[in-house]
Structure formats: structure tokens, C-alpha cells
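On clarity, I found the account of how folds are encoded harder to follow than it need be. Since the whole study asks how a given chain folds, the encoding of that fold should be made plain. For illustration, here is how one protein appears when written out as sequence plus C-alpha cells:

:::
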Amino acid sequence: MDEPDASGSLSQPTIRDSISGKRPNISITQSQFDEQLLDYMVGSLLPIRHVDSKELKTFCNGISHGNFKIMCRQTIAKKIEDRFQASKQALAQILSKLTSICPTADVWKSRGRSYMGVTCHWLDTETLLRKSACLAVRRVFGSHTYDVVAKTLSAVHKEFKISRKIVVTITDSGSNFPKTFRVFSRENDVQVDEDVDEEYEDEEIVSFF
């Protein structure tokens, strides 16, 4: 007979239990199983419909000996949304304590649909280690003109309340990004930085790479 593991559960069923068909003790709860399944779905970037796949159901039933039920689409969709909102609030809390942030932005097209991805980077004030996070991946409708880019990027900045904390924004060299900052950011700089000394009024605060 196997010795109990650290949690007090047997590491595998005994020979007697295997012969008799007795189910082994399961050391996790249904709630813990749900969270681990959610980790798997999100970490693997799987579509929600994957929970309906015959292969996943067979696998989960096999390893749990039928002790756990797989969440339906509606349940896992709600759990993903809840986790997203919690992660977003946690990130916003971190950013609220910073004074300097470096965002990046990029626009790309996939399967005929356009998207903008926005990330942010900063130095931890205690460890001085570089930190980064994804702020948003947004659909971009229509052409990638400078005004569309500006509206989308500005909405993300306002959502996380980082507009006045941005030191440098890094983008690609596409013509839409430079024009975005030339047309929009200078107007904002005049409104936000009205007390800036004259020798710094024309200083470029956005870099393009």
C-alpha cells in the first residue's frame, strides 16, 4: 500500500482499490478543478467552445474518474470576464502609484480585421526592475488614419488614467503614428503644460522607432 503524500491523500490507488473498481480519493475540490481548467483555457489561448469538445471531456473525466463536471460555455465565459476585471483593477492600482510610464503601440491586421495593441513599461520603484503589462488589444475599424489611431490610443490612456504620466511612447515607423502625435499631442501639451518654461515648450517627448 502506498504511503500518504504531504496532503494526506494517497499518491495513487491501492491494488485492492484498483481491482474492486473503488474510486481513489481526490485531493482537490470542484472549485479548484474549475480554476485549473480556467488557467489552462486562458493560458493556452483556447476558444470558449473548447469546453464542449469531446476530447477535453474524455480527458477530464479520465483523470478525475468522473468526480468533476466541466463548466459550460456561459459559466467559463463569466469566470474569464470576472478574472479579467480583477486583473484590470489590480493593474490600474499599480499604475496609479507610478509617475513615469513608457507605453508602446502597434496596429496590425489579421484575417481582414485590424487591431491595436497597447502595452506599458515602467521601473519598479523599490527593486528598479523593469515591469511591463498589456493594457489593451482593441479592434480598429476603417483605415488606420492618424485620427483613428489617436482616438483609440487616447481612449486606452484615459481608461487607465496614465495620460499625464507618459514619458515616451514607442511605435513603429508607420506614417500614421508620427502624424498622430504631431497633430494631437502638441495641442494637449499646450493645455496640460501651460506652466512649462519657454525653453522646453518645443521639446519632443515622443520617440519613434
Summary: The two ends are 64 Å apart (CA to CA). The chain has six helices and three strands. The chain has two domains: 1-96, 98-200. The chain has a mean pLDDT of 79.
